[in-house]
Structures are given as structure tokens and as C-alpha cells.
């Protein structure tokens, strides 16, 4: 039951923390937050300071939560060994996997990142899967690189368009077409 409800509870932590930070940002006694107040902005946590504060707070809460799970799992393991019970509810990689999935959801929502990743690049169900095995990172041989998809394309930005038109103009001038 804990493993099933873990993601829901982590999302609930993010939701409550977001609301608390928004409530605190509205208070005038917080000059570092109130200085960035823009009433025209209605999107939650649109201000970078608030997003940074949310991420720092959520990271700290998740570290504490993982430490609490580690203590609970050690205690459970001790009791199971003492009474010779062979039961495993979940393991720490399961906790970190859920934390990673929830943080990915948070960043995708708040940074408005389009889902350009293929199905093979989705969050793993567990850290014990070979695609996300940390031992591969520390192995002496270099692992094969996966095809990287760009997060952003700047081909049609005003800067890229002006650079391209400038380069075309320079090319025409060099070719003798004036």
C-alpha cells in the first residue's frame, strides 16, 4: 500500500509546499519575495525566486522523507529478521524512483517543457532497471550513447533568423550578386 500511494503523497507534498510558498510570498514582511511582486503575473510561481524556493524546499523535504523511509525500512528489516519473516514491501530505489518521477512532473509542469522524449526515455519504474543502473556510469568502459533529442530548437528565433539572413546576404555579396 505504501509503494502504491507514494507518488500521490509526494505530489501532495509538492502541492502543499507550493501553496505555502505562494501564501508566504504575498506577505509584506518578506522583502526578498515582495520586491519581485508583479500583480500582472497570475501564473503560480512564475517568478524565478519563488520557483527556486519551491525547488530548494521540496528537495530538502524529499531528502528528509527518504531518510525517514530508510529508518523505517531498517527497522522493518530488523523485525522481519528477528521473527524470521520473509517480506519486502519496497526498497530505497523504489523511493528514489518515485521522487525522481514526481520531480520530473513538477519541472515539466512549471517550466512548460513539451514532451519531446520518446517512450524509451521516460522515467524508469525503478533504479534497478539496466537503463538507469548507476554502475554503468562508473564502469571503466564507456557506455554507448543514446540518441539525444534537443530540448529546445532556436532555428526560428529572431536571433537565428537575423543571423541566417545576414549570412545569406554576405554570401550573395561575396558571389558578386549585389
UniProtKB/TrEMBL annotation:
InterPro entries: Sec8/EXOC4 (IPR039682), Sec8_M (IPR048630). Residues 2-159 form the Exocyst complex component Sec8 middle helical bundle domain. GO terms for cellular component: exocyst; growth cone membrane; synapse. Signal peptide: none annotated. Component of the exocyst complex involved in the docking of exocytic vesicles with fusion sites on the plasma membrane. Belongs to the SEC8 family. This is Exocyst complex component Sec8. It comes from Timema poppense (Walking stick).
Amino acid at each position: 500500500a505504501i509503494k502504491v500511494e507514494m507518488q500521490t503523497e509526494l505530489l501532495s507534498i509538492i502541492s502543499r509546499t507550493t501553496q505555502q510558498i505562494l501564501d508566504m510570498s504575498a506577505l509584506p514582511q518578506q522583502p526578498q519575495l515582495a520586491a519581485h511582486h508583479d500583480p500582472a503575473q497570475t501564473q503560480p510561481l512564475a517568478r524565478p525566486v519563488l520557483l527556486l524556493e519551491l525547488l530548494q524546499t521540496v528537495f530538502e523535504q524529499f531528502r528528509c522523507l527518504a531518510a525517514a523511509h530508510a529508518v523505517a525500512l531498517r527497522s522493518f528489516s530488523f523485525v522481519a529478521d528477528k521473527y524470521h519473516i520473509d517480506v519486502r514491501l519496497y526498497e530505497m530505489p523504489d523511493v528514489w524512483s518515485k521522487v525522481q518521477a514526481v520531480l520530473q512532473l513538477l519541472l515539466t509542469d512549471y517550466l512548460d517543457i513539451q514532451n519531446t522524449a520518446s517512450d524509451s526515455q521516460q522515467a524508469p519504474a525503478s533504479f534497478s532497471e539496466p537503463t538507469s543502473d548507476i554502475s554503468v556510469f562508473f564502469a571503466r568502459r564507456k557506455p554507448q550513447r543514446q540518441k539525444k533529442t534537443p530540448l529546445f530548437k532556436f532555428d526560428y528565433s529572431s536571433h537565428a533568423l537575423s543571423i541566417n539572413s545576414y549570412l545569406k546576404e554576405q554570401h550573395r555579396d561575396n558571389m558578386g550578386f549585389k
